[in-house]
Amino acid sequence: MILNHRIILHVDLDCFFAAIEARDNESYRHRPLIIGADPRGGSGRGVVSTCSYEARAYGLHSGMSISRAYKKCPHGIYIQPTFKKYKKASRQVMAIIESEGDSFQQASIDEAYLDATESCEGSMSNAMVMARRIKDEVLKRVGITCSIGIAPTKVLAKICCNLHKPNGITILKQDEIKAGIGHLDIEEIPGIGKKTSLKFRDKGINTIGDIISMPKARLIYLFGKHGKYLHDLARGVNHAPVVSHRTRKSISKERTFPSDVEDRSIAWEKLVDLNEKLHADMARKNIQYKTISLKVRFEGFDTYTRASSLSHVARNPRLALQVMDDLFKEFRQDERKIRLVGLRFSNLEVNQSHRQTSLWEFCTAQVEKKRW
């Protein structure tokens, strides 16, 4: 499938630290809550890590000195951060986000990017369904909200994410960039602050729309190589990839059928084929797994995932097929047509024994493919 534009999601947890504290203590909810140093016991030293939207109404923000925050909002609730709790919640959220899309990149403890171009088949409406699913899962399983921006590039997705916070979703299509964000101040572009913005304003550039309207040659003349970057960024042609910086924890493949299929044997044959290919790949990389997950997307883009964990790590295509068959049972009973199937192996480990089993496992997969 040839897709003209990418679909990138930027997920940002709303007032993350404060949201976790309010989740765990009802008395903090709907009140100005500030996470940071003690403004009294600590002699006013330190800064605000984050604060609730109720605190932001008084002019507080991350990075502000705690003493200044206390002067602006002396009646606020000031608590010190509990990073262990935040890291646990972050891992839970990132696992939810990573389970969707094609490529995942965690940008910070409360932000992540997701390339969903192929998973959403190039459709922004499908991306909206995915974004809602992510938000629902984060709220249900972690108990907090998040905002999501959807756009053709990482930078534009991040800009969009900030437009409807908290708890919002913003979509920006390739052909609607100028109409959608052209009015925004240039300081909305990540990396351009008050000081840097003065250089642009001196040249008559005050909004993102001003950048879009200016010829590429003029931008390069004024800002050198940064001019080309700005030109491409504002037009949604910046192709910085979504790249994971984490150790790979899963391996997966999924396939979309040319047309939705009703025959469950066709869907099963595709899963058997994916199982064979993934096991061959894992054999080459000498890795084993503990968890097996099936993904089924029906007509209408309704997507379901079912998983099962083994009692020990393995790399056995026959065992995987038995687990897959059990997971697929409920989908055999569903009368809806199937649009896509996927298979994922996770909780990966390198096989320390270095057994020479690749040929045997490949042959086993061939036999099982025929049997099933």
Short description:
The protein is α+β, with helices and mostly antiparallel strands. Helix content is 41%, strand content 23%.
What are its keywords?
globular, five-stranded mixed β-sheet, Alpha-Beta Plaits, DNA polymerase, domain 1, alpha+beta, 372 residues, MutS, DNA mismatch repair protein, domain I, single chain, 14 helices
Note down, in words, how this protein is organized:
The structure is a single chain. The chain has 372 residues and is of the alpha+beta class. The chain has four domains: 8-16 and 84-178, Alpha-Beta Plaits (2-Layer Sandwich), CATH 3.30.70; 17-83, MutS, DNA mismatch repair protein, domain I (3-Layer(aba) Sandwich); 182-234, Orthogonal Bundle (DNA polymerase, domain 1), CATH 1.10.150.20; 250-371, 2-Layer Sandwich (Dna Ligase, domain 1), CATH 3.30.1490. Helix content is 41%, strand content 23%. It has helices at residues 16-24, 53-56, 66-72, 83-98, 124-142, 154-161, 177-181, 194-201, 208-213, 216-223, 225-234, 264-285, 317-333, 358-371, and strands at 8-13, 33-36, 48-51, 77-79, 103-108, 111-115, 146-151, 169-171, 250-261, 287-298, 303-314, 338-346, 349-350. It has a five-stranded mixed beta sheet. Strands 9, 10, 11, 12 and 13 form a five-stranded antiparallel beta sheet that branches. Helix 12 (264-285) runs antiparallel to helix 14. It is globular and about 65 Å long. The model is unreliable at 354-372 (pLDDT under 50).
